[in-house]
Amino acid sequence: MKGPLFYSKILLFGEYGIIKDSKGLSIPYSFYNGALKTDENPSETAIASNASLQRYVGYLENINPELVVFDVASLKKHVEAGMYFDSSIPQGYGVGSSGALVAAIYDKYAQDKITVLENLTREKLLKLKTIFSEMESFFHGKSSGLDPLNSYLSIPILINSKDNIEATGIPAQQNDGKGAVFLLDSGIIGETAPMVSLFMENMKQEGFRSMLKNQFIKHTDACVDDFLKGDVKSLFKNTKSLSKVVLSHFKPMIPQQFHELWKKGIDTNEYYLKLCGSGGGGYILGFTEDLSKAEKALSGYKLEVVYNF
């Protein structure tokens, strides 16, 4: 048995800000994906994934039936037969590994599910987001539901505010363009929950709240608008400002050994780094107007291009 593929996602803009109603833009990233699967001779990874699914079934049984009802009998039967999530999506890297799993489970076992083929009104998108938020909270403590939404629909999602999300189109990639968005592998696994609680702790301080509203959210919103309009010049100006704000105020979310590299990008304008997901490890997102310059400046690191300008 092998189910349909669900892709990883990249939140280009909006990390942390969307908790406080900034804009956000999330795109599917098909380089990594996962599917529900059963094997005759499961590997150790498959056995571990199956054990995690067994715990998850117990959680899904108790989810609010007014929100979503699952065919728990079939799910249990399949999990007992050894079903697992076969995934190439790295965990703790900010590219939505649990989101893809949640999307796959909803797709196969939810009753009266909202499908991708329907006319996806704002109400339907919000309902899906609420369901996914509840389903994914098992993994993160508190989830916005956006990762599974992106994975389930496989289309870019524009977040205007908490209660206003829409499917969107993004400018076509320029395959021969010099500019790029890339992923930089920090080589460290990041944990979402501690980073989010650190952020929530900081939010208790007046100064941090005001910085978030007047700088972080302002630049994030501008980046989303620039990206969607295809205004590359303005996008890089705003991404640089965002990179500076993150280096000044979100240092704990940036692995120590990348502080210098982060600053070097801002000083030389060869690339700008920002958080990918909650930070603390995993991938770091990079933006550059000239990929060959960025590759040279970051020659000791593995870069994966996500989008070309």
Structure description:
The chain has 309 residues and is an alpha+beta fold. The chain has ten helices and nine strands. The longest helix is centred in the last third of the chain and has 24 residues.
Helix-strand layout with pairing:
Blueprint lengths: L5 E8 L10 E14 L6 H18 L10 H9 L3 E4 L9 H13 L12 H19 L5 H8 L3 E5 L2 E4 L12 E6 L6 H11 L3 H24 L2 H18 L9 H10 L3 E4 L7 E6 L2 H7 L5 E6 L1
Antiparallel strand pairs: 1-2, 2-3, 2-4, 4-5, 6-8, 6-9, 7-8
Describe this structure in a few short sentences:
This protein has helices at about 45-60, 70-80, 95-110, 120-140, 145-155, 190-200, 205-230, 230-250, 260-270, 290-295; strands at about 5-15, 25-35, 85, 155-160, 165, 180-185, 270-275, 285-290, 305-309.
